[in-house]
Amino acid sequence: MALRVCPEYGLISATSVRGVQVWLQVFSMEFKVVVGNGKLTSFRWDLWAGSRALKTAFLRLYSISHCKFTKIDDCVQLDRIEVVWNVSYGITLRSRNLGWHVDMLNLLKNVEVKVNCSDKWEWQLEKDRRFSVKSLYSSQVDNSESEVHRILTRK
Questions:
Q1: 45 and 69 in contact (C-beta within 8 Å)?
Q2: Most buried of 23, 45, 56, 112, CB within 10 angstroms?
Q3: Apex CA 19: angle with CA 2 and CA 134, to 5°?
Q4: Higher local confidence (pLDDT), 19 or 123
Q5: Looking only at Cα atoms, what is the longest distance across the chain?
Q6: H or E element: which one contains 149?
Q7: What's the number of CA atoms in the CB half-sphere (13 Å) around residue 81?
Q8: In sequence order, what are the beta bridge partners of 123?
Q9: Burial of 21 per CB tally in 10 Å (0-12, 13-18, 19+)
């Protein structure tokens, strides 16, 4: 099994083992990052704004970014009225890249940053938002459309 690892962040994905990939996908779909002060959440690698990580949603911007492993608090400035996103790149943005940057900033307008609390991960399958193996297992076994269900019921 080959693992791709981010030096600052840890395990990102696994290849060659289909089951591991499936479970990583399930986890990433059912956990939601609630941004607090941004000190624990990766700006580009974590799923916190929209349905995909910013690294994936804006691949070209990721490829030209200065710091690929920054946390949210490194990219945000809070003043009394608004949140200001400060994202730097290795080149001056022009035309298409500038358009993607504007699209990313528009996506980030919907994110609430809370200075007085830390980031947290919420499990979307439980009312109290705490992870349980039972809820994970039930969500996959009871769902005939899920990849995990197909693997577990394969003959």
A1: yes
A2: 45
A3: 130
A4: 123
A5: 60
A6: helix 147-152
A7: 0
A8: 31
A9: middle
Best CA proximity match to 57, nearest among 2, 108, 116, 110:
108
Q: What is the pLDDT of residues 24-64, one digit of tens each?
A: 666 666 777 888 889 989 999 888 888 788 999 999 999 99
Strands annotated E in the chain: 2-6, 10-15, 31-34, 76-78, 83-85, 120-123
Buried b (16+ CB within 10 A) or exposed e, 25-40: ebeeebbebebbbbeb
Closest CA to 40 of 69, 12, 71: 71
In sequence order, the 6+-apart residues with CB closer than 8 A to the CB of 84 are: 76, 77, 78
Tokens standing for residue 62: 């990721």
Sign of the torsion angle spanned by Cα atoms 112, 117, 118, 122: negative
Amino acid 9: pLDDT: 41
Residue 15 pLDDT greater than 60, yes or no: no
